[in-house]
Amino acid sequence: MKTSTGARLGLRTIALGYLVLxxxxxxxLILVRTFGEGIGAFLxxxxxxxxxxxxxxxxxxxxxxxxxxxxxxVATALALVRGRFRGRGVIQAVVDLPFAxxxxxxxxSLILLWGADGWFGGLERLGFKVIFGLxxxxxxxxxxxLPFVVxxxxxxLHEIGTEQEQAASTLGASTWQxxxxxxxxAIRWGLTYGVVLTIARALGEFGAxxxxxxxxxxxxxxxxxxxxxxxxxxxxxxxxxxxxxxLMGLAVVTLLGMTALxxxxxxx
Amino acid sequence: MITVVDAxxxxxxxxxxxxxxxxxxxxxxxxxxxxxxxxxxxLLRSIAGLEQLDGGRIxxxxxxxxxxxxxxxxxxxxxxxYAAFKHMTVRDNVAFGLTIRKRxxxxxxxxxxDLLEIVGLDGFQHRYPAQLSGGxxxxxxxxxxxxxxxxxxxxxxxxxxxxxxxxxxxxxxLRRLHDxxxxxxxxxxxxxxxALDVADRIAVLNKGRIEQVGDPVTLYDRPANDFVMxxxxxxxxxxxxxxRPHDIAxxxxxxxxxxxxxxxxxxxxVVEAVVERVVRxxxxxxxxxxxxxxxxxxxxxxxxxxxxxxxxxxETVYARxxxxxxxxxxxxxxxx
Lengths: 268, 336
Known about the structure:
heterodimer; A: mainly alpha; MetI-like fold; 2 domains; B: alpha+beta; Rossmann fold; CATH 2.40.50.100; five-stranded antiparallel beta sheet; membrane (chain A); transmembrane helix (chain A); ABC-type sulfate transporter activity (chain A)
């Protein structure tokens, strides 16, 4: 299709304007507000005990969620691609469920299951607090990030097929050796993307986590909860901007990491 | 030596292997030849342990390996699509089996370099498979399979994914390699020319059964049945019998043709035909013929014979089979 220069420029302007208005302007506004008061004010605001605790909690959740997702995500992807069993369609749908279900619904259903009156409520009476404790926040985050590793690894497994693994077995490699030496290196980029997406989503999760967290500043607030409570409860809008900037900073670092890895992949 | 006894394998209702029994002598280069779906790949993969038989036994070098995992069968396997380890260099690919066996580093390095020299990939040690051509990748795969000193080498349509020129070269090269290395080799192919060219023994498979086993000359000259005859080389139907196009002689005179034909025992007789087309294929000349009843067949003659006959389109000739006086004994199908 041939378009005139005018039409092309017009289309580009509209597309760019849409992006700028929808995404760039709000983010830049927060940055402007944050650093408008000077870098000192920003640093002070993210060095309060509540902020440090929130950062640590967010990173702790990521540190627990990522390995679990890698382990079960790869296992699930292998089962879905290589397995020949009934009910694969159902499992495919279950894996996609977290994409479809609103996080707030996840939070409510977790309370129903793990809360004091829930099916597994007995655990709480034994002194293992799930809801309004760290385990609840981890489970909520696991729920919403479950599809990422599976969905990134699955197509790669399809693509590589099983011949390399069969070749390894005829050369004497055990199942375990084949997995570590052949399968895992072959899926490493899919797995890396899955991990990056998991990190980004785990850091940013709000709806599911707010339902199952007790939300005490300095104890059970993640970074997203800190932004929320500073803004809504404390009317500390500047503090909210600063915390939001910190959160964005972490996301940017993750994205930069991914870009660097991607560049490395292209050269090998 | 490999012995397959009563091997059976079904995929649902489809019998991929139907009571196959086969001996593969030590040191031989045996081709499993057949059309797609004949069970030849299933048989090879069963020998490797990549498929589990529903019944029967596989014995390699006197050891019953029927229930043994592929890792412990002492085999080397080469796949049609190379199955190169894409994230490893050529050196690491070839070294894989030795690394798994935890051989000393110096020994691995020496052996890998030797093998790469044998397969003509010296100097390619640090390349990745993506930087090799198809033929090079397959030679790397062969070196990788040979590195573990397999008792038997199994090749599943190894040249199937390569273009015709490379395929012909690699075939010759494999033959020479086999003469040097002497490892018992089984090659799966659907290409009769490839089987005739490289193998010293051929097993023809059809519908999960073995039709005939023998050396290439026997199979070509004394096929056990019409299937083997038509699968190995081209055939023409003359008077209801299958004859090789180069075993058909043409004459302009019916009397002469009949006199000569009388000497051939069990021959299909003289057939009158009209020349449809004369095709010169270099040294050979193919003459497309048609009988009164509309049956088409082709005769293959030398250039000198064609010139002597001086045939033109539309002329009538008399065709007869020239397979010697003992044709009936040589080729049972002709005696029917």
